[in-house]
Amino acid sequence: MRKSTALLLLLTISAAFAQTGPSMDPGEKQQTSPVNGFAGLGKGRPADAKTEITATKEATFDNAANVAEFVGHVVVRDPQFTLSCDRLKVTLSKARKGMEVVEAIGHVVIVQDSTDKNGKTSKAIGHAESATYVPASGEVTMKGWPSIQSGMNNQVATEQSTVMVLNRNGQSRTLGPSKTNIVDTSETGAAQ
Predict the structure, then answer these.
(1) pTM, full prediction
(2) What CATH superfamily is the domain 3-20+31-181?
């Protein structure tokens, strides 16, 4: 890909990732969910936030279709999360003022550092064969043996067909068989 096309692509993708929908107030603070640890994407995002996408094999942009694709150990570094996968497909809106959908395929790993209302920082890690993010709904759908780990707590699919959905409010829902482990790390132990 020519340098000018690559620069245009990076600027377009950066602008697209920086867009926030009407319900994603940049002034809102991120809150973690007690079970999955993932805070909502888009919340607390700085106005000048930049997203960097690297790929080892290929980066293409189809102007007519408004689609950017990245292939080969793709890494997305964003102020709110880091994502790695084998292939990333970003479909921009027709007016290129945001994204319609982002699809990560193959060995998907999503890492997010979040801070709770008490100022405690935690790391949440999601694994799946594929993940789809729809900005309009704020949902990330993980398929293919999905799992979420936050500290010592984790939720793991017990069948390949299980689907985990994370929303922008930091909540999750699991469709299909799974196993959840929640570890009480409070000083008092079990609730009294």
Answers:
(1) 0.71
(2) Lipopolysaccharide (LPS) transport protein A like domain (2.60.450.10)
Domain extents in the chain: 3-20+31-181
DSSP secondary structure string for all residues of the chain? --HHHHHHHHHHHHHHHH---TT--TTSPP---TTT-PPPTTTT--TT---EEE-SSEEEEETTTTEEEEEEEEEEE-SS-EEEEEEEEEEE-TTSSSEEEEEEEEEEEEEEEEE-TTS-EEEEEEEEEEEEEETTTTEEEEESS-EEEETTEEEEESSTT-EEEE-TTS-EEEES-EEEE----STT-S--
pLDDT of residue 115: 73
> Which position has the higher pLDDT, 147 or 80?
147
